Amino acid sequence: MSRQAPLRDPISAPACVGPRKQQALANAGIGRGRGKPPGQKVPGAVPAARSIPPNEMLNSLQQPAAAAAQPQRYIPGLTAPPAAPLPASNDDLLPKVPKSLASEYKAQKKNPVSCAMEYGAITRSKVSFEECSADIAGMYSTRFGNQCTVNGRKFPKGVGKTKKEAKTDAAGKAMDILIEETRHLPEEDPHAAPPQEKNLVGGGAYYTPRSEMTSVESGMEFYGGHEEREGQSRIDTNDISGKHPLMMFNEYCSKKHLRLGYVTPDKVTDRGFYCQVIINDKPITDAYASSKKEAKRSAGEEALKILLLKDRLMLGEHNHSHFDKMSQIARQTFEDKVAAYPQCRTGYHTLAAFILKTGESDPGKVVAIGTGQGGITGRQLKENGRSLIDTSAMVVARRALIKYLHQQIHLQYSNRGHKTCSIFDELPDSHLLVLKEEISLHFYMSTAPAGDAAAYIPTEYAPTLFLFPSYDCFISSQNLMISDREADIMYEGLHYPDLSNPSAGSLRVNGTGGVTLVVNNLEKQEQTYEGLQSGEPLRVMCNSDKLLKWNLVGVQGALLSRFILPIYISSISLGNKYDLGHLTRAFCCRIDDSVNELLPSGYHLRHPYIGRVSVYEPQKEAMAGQAAGPMSVNWSLADDRIEIVACNEGRSIAASPFRTGPEGSSRLCKAGFLNRFHTLANDCKFSLPVQTYAELKAAASDYQRAKLILYDCMESSGKGRWLTKPVEIMSFTK
């Protein structure tokens, strides 16, 4: 596969698109298209009806009747046989079914409907299903019928006792015919854009990086070792795919000649049964659960994960993909910062981090970290801005990033000679700063964010086995291995959003117990301060929707947009729950690229690289007897110590290594950001009247305009209304 030319600008966004424009616009964000260049033929378009002039109609009526004579009927032995029909050209055939997809279909690893939809996505063909009658041989039938259509070609009807069975039968018949008819065709490159689309940039269901899209590294060099990935061996899973995780752990230790032991006291603690894993006489990790068996399983899985991560670090940097490196540096930095606080090391549920890279050879440095899950209730909302509302890992990490950006802007504008230490450059003829050209921002998260991304990704995956080239052992776990086809797409930076479900892409809010709620299904979509204080549930937008927002308006927020141009994420690395189709839709492809024509200068819709680590990272579970994510940890490169915040209070705990005062207001709260904003305003010699926090944010006109365009796109496309919190909670001035 050809590789990209070296990429230079870390802020440009990849976004070349393919066909299915109308369907993508209907599903992905706004009801307007970019149009086509004059004279260009749109693939799959139906020719428009033509008005016939009167003189042309008269001439057609005066043609000799013989021209319409029927051909002579063939009678064997009496008349000459008709000429043999010409073989159909390849242009008349549908695209070839990829071998890997055909194999998965024949092996029944995927249901026929999924295979048909995947065929459409890979070959950029329009696949649709339509319910129809199931009449058989002219007789009335009580069964249901369905028919599959691919690029306008209708395939034989499917029938079944239910609608689902009929659709499955129709998809199966279509796949059988497609595989048979196209088996003689050469294998096509699923990532190559059609000739008529080589120079187009717009919205749709197919995305690839622009030629001018730039980054600190390029092509496979950016993501590391494609050759190494292809060289990784696989083993037959027929005999051992059903092994218990502890059996896998025991076999790993046996192959590595490690002395393995467990400590499982009989006494039950207030957190449940306890188990500690000992390797070579040294404790590795521990776990609590409702039973001894479950505690031992959890501890064993966590220990196996730790050992695999250590092995990966020993492989050498050249064997790691970009996504592996982001995971490693994020986890190692977190471990270093919380080494003296074991309750933080074992008590978190999700880890998120932002990493800055400077140049191709720079391994990157973590500038912001966040852990946690959940947040406060509506009754706990105050008007002084001193409590964190949302303490989920992604939101906390982003607020820590903003604190770091405050420090960098202060360095740039201060009179202490630190300009060379800042990550910003000054724009000529402007008061705004811009991220230096060689610097790029990357995001890591241990699992898919809640909302549209995670809602459609299955929690459980069939066990898959994988053999690493660095050592002779195998492990069994969920979603461990990515198929070659999906890995190639991931490494090339292609986006194939899954738009097959009409309800997918809807805005969601956080509910209780980790459940997310579709905004369109809520009875009440207005939030008032009085209602929240009286006990109404506080509705906070899900992390998937917030990440979508950051890919349009940047991660810097409204206040900092008065000092700097938008900062966009270059890549997103996940450790768990990875599905490219759902993630690309949730993170960016719910909105069409034509929105760029409406955005203020400096803003655009960003399509970041999205990938996952090579080794599946088991998602941490909440401790027994405790609410998920009871504590949240935050740290940035501008801080000396971590801060520990109680998720259900939004304030730092008494034992936190860093604490602002006896009240425990978090250093990431709105009031803290307002104070730092005034410091930056003094550095820049801004003359500001006394304004509330809400008024200062509203004064960032370009940012607010871009944000409202996003809200309008989602609401006008039927994906829901963006719920906002009452303005009273932002009415403070200090």
From TrEMBL:
Domain A to I editase: 368-732
Domain of life: Eukaryota
Matches recorded under InterPro entries: A_deamin, ADAD1_DSRM, dsRBD_dom
CDD domains assigned: DSRM_ADAD1 (cd19905), DSRM_EIF2AK2-like (cd19875)
Gene Ontology cellular-component terms listed: cytoplasm; nucleolus
One Pfam family in the UniProt entry: A_deamin
A GO biological-process term: adenosine to inosine editing
Region of interest (Disordered), residue spans: 1-70
Keyword Ligase: no
Residue intervals of the DRBM domain: 111-180, 244-309
Gene Ontology MF annotations: double-stranded RNA adenosine deaminase activity; double-stranded RNA binding; tRNA-specific adenosine deaminase activity
UniProt keyword terms in alphabetical order: RNA-binding
Keyword Ubl conjugation: no
Protein name (database record): Uncharacterized protein
Originating species: Capitella teleta
Lineage, opening ranks: Eukaryota, Metazoa, Spiralia, Lophotrochozoa, Annelida
